[in-house]
Amino acid sequence: GDSWGIFTFLCAALCNLPALPALNCTEELGAGQSIQKTYDLTRYLEHQLRTLAGTYLNYLGPPFNEPDFNPPRLARAERVPSATVDLDLWRGLTDNARLAANYRAYSRLLCYLRALDGQAGTAELRHRLGHFCSSLQGLVLSIAGVMSSLGYPLPAGPAGPPAPPGAPVAPNDFLKKMDDFWLLKELQTWLWRSAKDFNRLKKKVPPAVVTLRLEA
């Protein structure tokens, strides 16, 4: 009857339709995801550093591993990038300026940590330092990714090696340990502040949109 004829016509039409492009739902990775990833990595490094710092300070011995040890910062430690900037001044910087400062600081801190990795006296400590250096290298690359996704240029040239030619070496073992102490202390402060920076930044950047894309 008529119904069977209509059904037959529809089947024939469907069989002869050209292949349709596939309709895929894909999430575009943008600045929002890059910032979230960097924030998560910063918090992970904070957690990782707490264990590493305790192990390393115990390796240095007293007074460096004593909870109330809080020495004044020596002139020698000025080579380590300081995070002790007034918070109101820091927040008054542009996002680009803060990101650039983070990128430069972690690039330099990574150089110093790699030097520690080669000097550590135990295999376990060298392993932990090596793992932390790999994670910190990931943070440097992640910050570069955030800057790129926001359209900011990277700072001109990464920081140089931890001991440039002509730099004085520690005249004794105590001052060398003091350098190591301040390196860990400044790194803890940088990570604490960076986590706050990226938490604020991710609130300013809209979340990623889900788009429909036709693929042939």
TrEMBL record:
It is found in: Secreted. The keyword Glycoprotein applies. Residues 1-22 form the signal peptide. Pfam families: PRF. It comes from the Eukaryota. Keywords: Cytokine, Glycoprotein, Secreted, Signal. One of its GO terms (molecular function) is cytokine activity. GO terms for biological process: cell surface receptor signaling pathway via JAK-STAT; positive regulation of B cell proliferation. InterPro entries: 4_helix_cytokine-like_core, PRF/CT. The keyword Nucleotidyltransferase does not apply. GO terms for cellular component: CNTFR-CLCF1 complex; CRLF-CLCF1 complex; extracellular space. SUPFAM superfamilies: 4-helical cytokines. Its main location: secreted. Forms a heteromeric complex with cardiotrophin-like cytokine CRLF1/CLF-1; the CRLF1-CLCF1 complex is a ligand for the ciliary neurotrophic factor receptor/CNTFR. The CRLF1-CLCF1 heterodimer binds SORL1 (via N-terminal ectodomain); within this complex, the interaction is mediated predominantly by the CRLF1 moiety. The tripartite signaling complex formed by CRLF1, CLCF1 and CNTFR also binds SORL1. In complex with CRLF1, forms a heterodimeric neurotropic cytokine that plays a crucial role during neuronal development. Also stimulates B-cells. Binds to and activates the ILST/gp130 receptor. Belongs to the IL-6 superfamily. This is Cardiotrophin-like cytokine factor 1. The gene is Clcf1.
